[in-house]
Amino acid sequence: MKKSRQTPVLVAASILLIIISSLIPSDQSTWLGALQTLLLGAGLLGCCMAFWRFAKGGKGGKGKG
């Protein structure tokens, strides 16, 4: 997969993880609460990584040419 397509896919997957984590009823079980926390953490980490790739990708083209 091209690098230009990786960031939008990472953002979409992260948003999907965050939405799924919000649908889990965490008050019913400790395990469901832990699963919700893990999914939310993975979603937030994915969003941060996508932002990092986006911010880092803009700097590579300067000075060339």
In a nutshell, what does this entry contain?
This protein is mainly alpha-helical and 65 residues long. Helix content is 75%, strand content 0%.
Give a verbal description of the structure.
Keywords: Membrane, Transmembrane, Transmembrane helix. This is DUF3188 domain-containing protein. The chain crosses the membrane at residues 35-55. There is one protein chain. The protein has 65 residues and is an all-alpha fold. It is 75% helix and 0% strand. Helix 1 runs antiparallel to helix 2. The longest helix has 28 residues, at 30-57. The protein is elongated, with a radius of gyration of 16 Å.
Taken as a percent bin, the fraction of beta residues is under 5%
Overall average pLDDT: 81
Reading the helices and strands in chain order gives HH
- Structural class label: mainly alpha
Total domain modules: 1
Backbone shape? elongated
